[in-house]
Amino acid sequence: MHRTLERLIKGDSTLETHVRIALQKWNEILKDIDKISDEELAKSIDSEQVCFETKCGNDIKDEGQDIMAFTAIAQFYSCSDGFGERLEVARRVYNAIQNSQCSCEIKWDVKEVAEVYDLLTE
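^ that's the sequence the OP posted. Answer follows.
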């Protein structure tokens, strides 16, 4: 995640675009979350990893993975009320990623993000 954070600090204007693309992709993946099983969710997330890598990181695989990981969790959090009513969905997404066929890098990054946001202890 260091490279992505460095881009942010240097004011890389494409980062905002990549985050917006990632959030749109998450909206597509999660649109029917109440109707699908955890296994289906994991498969859906896994099938989109390459899309995140190519469209959210200037074709730099690890940058796309970073954005995939932090938007996976951060999209459910706000500074004013934490995860609030979105806590269970955030945990479900976290668990789906951990149980998916996503790369170990994605799983590691998502775990780090979940720890920063205290998702696993709330």
